[in-house]
Amino acid sequence: MARRVAIGLIVLSLCACQVLQGLGGARRTPRATIGLPTALPSATPRPTRLPLEPTLTVQPDIDTPQVRGLRPEYAADLLLTRDWTRYSLDIRVALDPRMEQATIDGQARIRFTNPLATPLRDIELMLWPNDPQYRAEMRAGPALVDGTFVDPVPLLGDLALSLPLAKPLAPGATVDISLPFHIETSGPIGGEVPQRFGITEGILVAPTFYPLLPRLIDGAWQVEPAPPGGDTTNSETALYDLAIRAPGDLALAVSGIEVDRSENPDGTQTVHVVTGPMRDVAFALGPLETATVQVAQVELRAWYLPEHAESAQEMLEAAQVQYEALTDRVGPYPYPQLDLVDAPGAFGGIEYPGLVFIGTLGGTNVIEPTVHEVAHQWFYGLIGDDQLHEPWLDEGAATYAEVLYYEAAGRSGRATGMLSDLRAWLRSHPDPTLPIGLGVGEYADEREYALFVYVKGALFFDALRRELGDAAFTEFLHLYYQTFRYRVADGAAFQNLAQDTCGCDLTSLFDLWVWQGGQIPTLP
């Protein structure tokens, strides 16, 4: 993610990740004037229950539209397992005439297969819009579980819910869940305490807007609140099928690939989107223009406010260089499209698979948030990690990818200068010996978390590169990608793969930087 964090006298633009901080023809979409309610449901008493619809049985076979969520040469990735979790999301979005409030009403249908060797007694779902980092309120349920009515049990003050199962879900067995949900949101989301969900300058920014299955860790659902300052979600890759009905005169950017679009008599549009294996999805809706650049078989698409057209050009150019650099350094991007969305004030930027929000367009710092968030398509998106407990794996990598960007752009002096800046920021801390391998909530505050996970994390990746040598470092990144693409890595596996690559013992290096900490000889 990217939020602005002051380190000494230097302001570091960080992404929700937290980042250090040729266009095609533009298409203008006017502001919404139709299909909008005069008042939002929040003005009326809340129903005790939402409308309940039957479950949808998702067939195990891969159908043609889902294949379109991947580039043709990676279509076989859908066959890596027949047990992908599948989400079918049918939602309707409405905004008030002043573009200050919005509602999302939806139906989530989830097909989940128990991957454990032991039975599961409940299914638990995260309702992330109820987290303090989201300017929203969300309700969900009741549910149908394999056709049986289930009243959810709230967890963590409505941040999650449990669906007790009448019969334990056996290993390898599949459950079909259907439940409605309702979200109310508003704006603005910028300011001193930026938020990741809500309305900003007429744009609805909506990440993780549906009930999300958390990961299973040691046989239990990873249902826990996110500490302030870090990212929130941890989830396995899944297949998504989305139908979004929204005002027809607003532009709609969604993770995945649009496979169908229709205009409705009431002035709304219905857009059908599918994905390949993705860890999460997000969308944005607003008065946005678009511009594209084609890079091999992948379309990079900018969505931007008209007053930010010049910044959008800069964003697309930087994204192209970074895309090409990380394809070479790490591995291929398997999806046919990557969306970059103008979201003023949304931290420096926030990453989601197939779609990133950039909060700095119109300002002077566009490149670093952009290349940081693009890097998260590899580090977090394709190669997962525990963002709550081992955030260095994606944030340290994405920050160091800014250095790789400058090298690829022929700006080696800026790459060297950035590393010097990082060392200076780290030296400014009273105790720069702290390790990078702590969880978000284990650092003293958000500033310390940002300094050690982003800044010192990037310096660790540079130290590892120098220890291995450039060729072996690239070989390691290739192996890391091949081993954990669509999966979740951890620090121990990362270390083992690095040691396998060099045929050497890196215990001292990892203890010094990641696990134990200590005085870095090259830092003074």
How does this structure look, described?
With 524 residues, this protein is of the alpha+beta class. It has two domains: 1-29 and 289-524, Neutral Protease Domain 2 (Neutral Protease, domain 2); 52-238 and 257-287, Immunoglobulin-like (Sandwich), CATH 2.60.40. Helices cover 24% and strands 30% of the residues. The strands form seven sheets. Strands 3, 4, 6, 7, 8, 11, 16, 18 and 19 form a nine-stranded mixed sheet that branches. A five-stranded mixed sheet has the order 21-22-23-25-24, covered by helices on one side. Helix 2 packs parallel to helix 3 (367-375). The longest helix has 23 residues, at 446-468. It is globular and about 65 Å long. The protein starts with a strand and ends in a 9-residue tail after the last helix. The model is unreliable at 3-16, 18-49 and 57-62 (pLDDT under 50).
Question: Can you give keywords for this protein?
Answer:
single chain; 524 residues; alpha+beta; Neutral Protease, domain 2; Immunoglobulin-like; 5-stranded mixed β-sheet; 9 helices; 24% helix; 30% strand; globular
Indicate the percent of residues in helices. Answer: 10-25%
Tell me, rounded to a whole number, the average pLDDT: 89
What portion of the residues fall into strands of 2 or more residues? 25-35%
Gyration radius, rounded: 22 Å
Give the name of the CATH superfamily of the largest domain: Neutral Protease Domain 2
Distance separating the two termini: 29 Å
Biggest sheet layout: 9 strands, mixed
Number of strand segments: 27
Summed up, the helix count is 9
Sequence stretches where pLDDT stays below 50 over 5 or more residues: 3-16, 18-49, 57-62
| Overall morphology | globular
Multimerization status: single chain
